[in-house]
Amino acid sequence: MTYNSTKEFAQSLDQADELARFRESFTIPKHVDGTESIYLCGNSLGVQPKKAVEYVADELNDWAQLGVKGHFDKTFPWTRYHEFLTDSMAEVVGAKPHEVVVMNTLTPNLHFMMVSFYKPSGKRRKIVMEADAFPSDTYAVDSQIKWHGGNPAEDIILWQPRPGSSTLMMEDLETIFKNHGDEIALVMIASINYYTGQFFDLKKITELGHSHGAMVGFDCAHGAGNVDLKLHDSGADFAVWCTYKYMNSGPGSIAGCFVHERHADNDQINRFAGWWGHNKEERFLMKPKFDPIYGAEGWQQSNAPILSMAPIRASMELFMEAGFDNLLAKSKQLTNYLEYLIHNIEGDRIKIITPKDPKDRGCQLSLAVKDADKSLFETISDKGVIADWREPDVIRVAPVPLYNSYMDCWNFVQILAAAL
Ligand SMILES: *Cc1c(COP(=O)(O)O)cnc(C)c1O
After folding, report:
1. Which residues does 210 contact at the CB level (< 8 Å), separation at least 6?
2. Which residue lies with its CA nearest to atom 14 of ligand 1?
3. Membrane-crossing residues (predicted)?
4. Largest CB tally within 10 Å, which of 83, 121, 187, 275?
5. CB of 116 within 8 A of CB of 97?
């Protein structure tokens, strides 16, 4: 499609957008002047689906009215509540339903997956991560290595960008494996790097790791609900993600976890078990011997936090109604359009460090701004833009296809250009 940078063109794109009506299903935070802010921060916290309020209230009411009977006696009984999220979640991350479970929060899930899939032994003890990984992932990996008696300074191998570049190259990961293949126990990287927005080739990485005898897992916090992860086809051993970013399920909401079906009933895999992972038919028989549920559900420990799961239902309903393929198609167009507008800003102060090829990114663009400090970011914030700033010089913006418009992109670029 050929773009132009007029306001009329942005309006015409919104008019032609069949998904535009979904914005109405969300509450967009207001700017101080009472207008809707230009919310481009869905990579950090998605906005609230209006139905979330109702669904949480339903559970509070059921608790008041039914008490303990709410575990069984209602449309969405609490004992099975997570099951009502499985199919839609599996569809969005590209997995089979028994490979997916919604449980815990993200970093604990990452730890629990490493309990199962990081088994250092002999010479094979190293974990490969991407450089500039999200700090929680680095802390988790570092502490797992220590817990196994290893030394993170030796046992973490960083996949680094080449000098002068921000993004990572597959060839360099191949070189790491060529040099250390028999020392690597696990590859644990993000699906999309939180800083650059680079979307990695999960399948290629998995094939590379497996061909050298390593396990492979992904932190899909920035990928889930944003790009086509195809987790099952990637062959990854495990994946984890949160639901408060692109999945709009509220601050600190409950996270997702994927375990590939090849591990579904492998009793040689260690896990930290709990009664919610036990055979459902027998869960309430209170037997002492753990008999895990087939698939990812067998990794659950506790009964589910219903009040945090209710908004996920509201959000996933919208994903299903809009159709994830339609969202992906709009996402590409919306992001390409935003990129076009940014390239049209006069001067050379902005460099987009996110990959140019749409297949190597989701909807996030990371803008490195020459000679900028946080005051630039504060100026655009004062004008009603909600984005985020990463020291030293990067603004991240993410036009989210479920609720952002072409006019959001246009307005943002007007404000940014004026501030520059
Ligand atoms: C957002 C994010 C986190 C946050 O972890 P929580 O456990 O949800 O607080 C961790 N890792 C990555 C890669 C993230 O993007």
Report:
1. 216, 235
2. 221
3. none
4. 187
5. no
Q: Closest Cα partner for 217 from 245, 241, 194?
A: 241
190 within ligand 1 shell (Cβ under 6 A): yes
342 and 395: one domain? yes
pLDDT bracket for residue 108 (50, 70, 90): very high
Work out whether strand 385-386 and strand 38-39 pair parallel, antiparallel, or are unpaired.
parallel
For position 102, which CATH number holds?
3.40.640.10
Place of tokens 């010479």: 123
206 lines ligand 1 (CB under 6 A): no
Q: Is 400 left (phi over 0), alpha (psi -120 to 50) or beta?
A: beta
CA–CA gap between residue 409 and residue 342 (Å, rounded): 9
Other CB atoms within 10 A of residue 297 CB: 25
If you write DSSP's letter for every residue of 8-36 in order, what string do you get? HHHHHHHHH-TTGGGGGGEEPPBPTTSSB
63 is a domain residue: no
Termini Cα distance of the chain: 28
Q: How many CB atoms lie within 10 A of CB 379?
A: 15
How far does Cα 156 stand from its chain's mean position? 23
Helix (H, G, I), strand (E, B) or coil at 130: strand
> Is 256 inside a domain boundary?
yes
Q: Which residues pair with 130 in a beta bridge?
A: 159
Asked if 205 and 236 sit in the same domain, the reply is yes
Ligand 1 atom nearest the C-alpha of 107 is: 7
pLDDT digits (tens, 9 = 90+) for 25-72: 999 999 999 999 999 999 999 999 999 999 999 999 999 999 999 999
Residues 154 and 262 in one domain: yes
Asked if residue 364 has its Cβ within 6 Å of ligand 1, the reply is: no
Same domain, 94 and 228: yes
CB neighbours of 147 closer than 8 A, spacing ≥ 6? none
Does residue 309 form part of some domain? Answer: no
Q: Provide the number of structural domains found in the chain.
A: 2
292 assigned ligand-binding residue? no
Exposed/middle/buried for 119, CB within 10 Å: 0-12, 13-18, 19+? middle
Same domain for 221 and 174?
yes
Q: Which residues span the domain enclosing 15?
A: 7-48+324-419
Residue 269 included in any domain:
yes
Whole-prediction pTM: 0.97
> 178-200 pLDDT, tens per residue?
999 999 999 999 999 999 999 99
